[in-house]
Specification:
Largest sheet: 7 strands, mixed
Distance between the termini: 8 Å
Structural class: alpha/beta
Order of helices and strands: EEEHEHEHEEEEEHEHHHEHEE
CATH architecture: 4-Layer Sandwich
Number of helices: 8
Helix content: 10-25%
Strand content: 25-35%
Number of domains: 1
CATH class: Alpha Beta
């Protein structure tokens, strides 16, 4: 649909990787993270009818492999298709140092400093996660905004302010706390997930939604659900309970291992 904001999750989990596609009304095509194997990323884009070479830019949130797999290669996805890669200085100093991406495709983002791509503005904001200078992004174009906030252990006021009143919100709802505590995982892993620099529980995500969703918010896509320690039903139930019965915001869950439907508004 011409003049629409189009977006979808291409993959959304620690196991299968994370990557999201966003196309603005003026035709800017973005990938937010590329945490799936290169061939599968190409197949996911083909499913939604997007040629990789048509992607304007790739924005990386942080350096964990489930967000960078197609970049951590001798011949990275972005280099194969000549796509500029935007990431923080912390990323380039640590995880980004491992990539073979050519210098002319590397771009630096600074939290709080917008990146303009034509009439599209991408605003990076810091988030609490156990990585080097991790960020979320708000994409603005034609008076509309899409925000992505995944991989964060809590939602401080700064993050709430960055995503509040977005038209479309991709928000982590990683785990059910009781399922996590009784998962049989190592104590170290459980403590990491539950920490303030780990991942959001369903209840934390729900509380965040109660603060940031407004009449303007048309869609919330719950993402990065744990396969072992969550279910779509639990995540949806918590999110819906947090919002007013009069709220007509659509809430959906991103599939862990395949593209979601393409949302077009």
């Amino acid at each position: 649909m011409a003049g629409s904001f189009r977006f979808c999750s291409l993959s959304s989990s620690s196991v299968f990787g994370n990557s999201y596609y966003v196309e603005t009304p003026d035709g800017v095509r973005l990938l937010l993270d590329c945490g799936v194997p290169l061939r599968r990323l190409e197949r996911c884009l083909a499913i939604i009818g997007v040629e990789p070479s048509s992607v304007t830019a790739l924005f990386i949130t942080h350096g964990h492999r489930d967000h960078t797999a197609a970049l951590d290669l001798k011949h990275p996805f972005a280099q194969r298709y000549r796509i500029p890669v935007y990431a923080t200085g912390g990323f380039w100093r640590t995880s980004g140092a491992k990539t073979h991406l050519e210098p002319d495709l590397r771009r630096h983002v600074v939290p709080g400093r917008p990146v303009d791509l034509g009439r599209c503005r991408v605003e990076p904001f810091l988030k609490p996660h156990d990585a080097a200078e991790p960020v979320g992004y708000t994409v603005r174009s034609s008076g509309r905004a899409l925000s992505i906030a995944t991989d964060l252990g809590c939602v401080p006021e700064s993050v709430s302010d960055a995503v509040k009143d977005s038209d479309y919100l991709i928000l982590e709802s990683n785990h059910d706390r009781d399922m996590e505590l009784n998962s049989g995982r190592s104590r170290r892993l459980i403590e990491r997930v539950l920490s303030d620099v780990g991942h959001l529980s369903n209840d934390q995500a729900a509380r965040a939604l109660s603060r940031v969703v407004s009449r303007r918010t048309r869609l919330v896509l719950l993402s990065h659900l744990s396969i072992e320690c969550n279910t779509p039903d639990l995540a949806l139930r918590a999110a819906r309970a947090a919002l007013s019965p009069r709220c007509d915001t659509v809430i959906e869950v991103a599939p862990p291992d395949r593209p979601s439907r393409v949302f077009s508004y």
